[in-house]
Amino acid sequence: MEHKGNSWHETCFTCKRCQQPIGTKSFIPKDYQNFCVPCYEKQFAMQCVHCKKPITTGGVTYHDQPWHKDCFLCTSCKQQLSGQRFTSRDDFAYCLNCFCNLYAKKCASCTTPISGLGGSKYISFEERQWHNNCFNCKKCSVSLVGRGFLTERDDILCPECGKDI
């Protein structure tokens, strides 16, 4: 057997770890020693935190731990997270859609989650929140962003519409 200018008898060309003849099987040289692929993976490859199998190509690091891309999934919907934006809560990773549906505050007007993505701003008043474009007078629909407003039960009103309260 020959590899990079070195020669071995066929029976001497063995895996450094398991001592089995490599023959014509695939092998991986490391530090002037040769390893069969399973032994190399057991000894040197990182192990996926989720499935405990070796990571031979690619992979993802999350919380300083290695994962296969196929194993790094949203805790809720099980969609693959590698290559997309995600966030976490209590060390569990979530796609943004699941995170918003599960944990984000809901707009008092349209009831959809307020994600805050892309630096989008929102208004918060007495335990309620609104998207900027939803913070409008209940009667005349004028935007109340940056303006004074009045409240009537759960409604917000501009000063003009609220003057008869």
From TrEMBL:
<protein>
    <submittedName>
        <fullName>Four and a half LIM domains protein 2</fullName>
    </submittedName>
</protein>
<dbReference type="Pfam" id="PF00412">
    <property type="entry name" value="LIM"/>
</dbReference>
<keyword id="KW-0479">Metal-binding</keyword>
<keyword id="KW-0862">Zinc</keyword>
<keyword id="KW-0677">Repeat</keyword>
<feature type="domain" description="LIM zinc-binding">
    <location>
        <begin position="108"/>
        <end position="165"/>
    </location>
</feature>
<keyword id="KW-0440">LIM domain</keyword>
<dbReference type="InterPro" id="IPR001781">
    <property type="entry name" value="Znf_LIM"/>
</dbReference>
<feature type="domain" description="LIM zinc-binding">
    <location>
        <begin position="46"/>
        <end position="105"/>
    </location>
</feature>
